[in-house]
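Quiz preparation item.
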């Protein structure tokens, strides 16, 4: 079994309410094992037979839609991909951990669409943007809550759905991966 994390978008916001206990029970019924939620905002660590992450994403999105009536993105990443989302974020070293985000995208964004995003965002705020591997890196330098750089704005211009997590949350999730590994090594 391989350990993964699913970053679920739009969970417990905008009227889409789902307790982590309900989510864990539904995932267990579908064969997901070793379930652990990190922060009640749709971060779920789990063990599953190794397979391409897109297949796991589709399985999770289907479960959310059919079991709970929720349309949500499920961005599934391995431990190494989470570590890369932190290490490759060009704003992580210079920005505030709670303001620097990685937006996990359902697939790679087209560089031409990213250029459109940059052009459309120019003059709208102090945020900095960079494109990554199935990711968009964002520094919400002026604050997330006051930013005009919203998920719908980003998704329309990139033509991709995504869900974002800040560096503090990603570090916590990476730590959970490593705790699990240490526990396995001790047993």
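Solution:
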């Amino acid at each position: 079994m391989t350990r993964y994390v699913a970053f679920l978008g739009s969970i417990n916001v905008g009227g889409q309410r789902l307790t982590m206990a309900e989510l864990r029970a539904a995932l267990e019924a579908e064969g997901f094992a070793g379930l652990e939620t990190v922060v009640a905002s749709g971060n779920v660590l789990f063990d599953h037979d190794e397979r391409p992450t897109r297949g796991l994403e589709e399985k999770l999105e289907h479960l959310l839609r059919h079991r709970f009536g929720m349309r949500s993105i499920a961005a599934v990443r391995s431990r190494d991909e989470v570590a890369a989302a932190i290490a490759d974020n060009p704003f992580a070293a210079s920005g505030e951990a709670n303001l620097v985000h990685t937006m996990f995208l359902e697939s790679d964004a087209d560089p031409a669409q990213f250029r459109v995003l940059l052009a459309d965002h120019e003059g709208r705020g102090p945020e900095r943007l960079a494109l990554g591997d199935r990711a968009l890196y964002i520094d919400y330098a002026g604050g997330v809550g006051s930013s005009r750089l919203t998920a719908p704005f980003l998704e329309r211009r990139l033509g991709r759905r995504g869900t974002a997590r800040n560096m503090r949350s990603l570090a916590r999730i990476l730590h959970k991966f490593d705790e699990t590994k240490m526990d396995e090594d001790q047993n």
